[in-house]
Amino acid sequence: MSVEILRMLERIIAALGGIGSIYLGYRLFSIARLENSSSGSLKNSLFTISLTRIGPGVFFALFGAYILVTSVNSRLTFSDASPAFIMMGTSD
Q: Against a cut of 0.85, is the pTM above it?
C-alpha cells in the first residue's frame, strides 16, 4: 500500500474514533444519574473552564470532539523523496 492510502485510512480511523467517543459519551450521559457533587475543570494559562452538575459522558463527548477536530484540521504533507536506507552491521 502507498503512504497516501495508509494516511487516509489513519484519518478515517481517527474520525470514526472521535465520532464513536461522542456517541458513547452521549449514551453514558443519558443513562447516568446526575449528582450535585459532579464537576470538572480545565485550567490553562489563558483560560479556565469549570463545569458543574455534569455526567461522565460529557467528558467522553468532549474528548471525542477534540479527536475529531484535530484529525480534520491536521494537514497532510507528502514528498516524493525517499529517505536513504542504511544497513547497519554489514560488511562488504
A: no
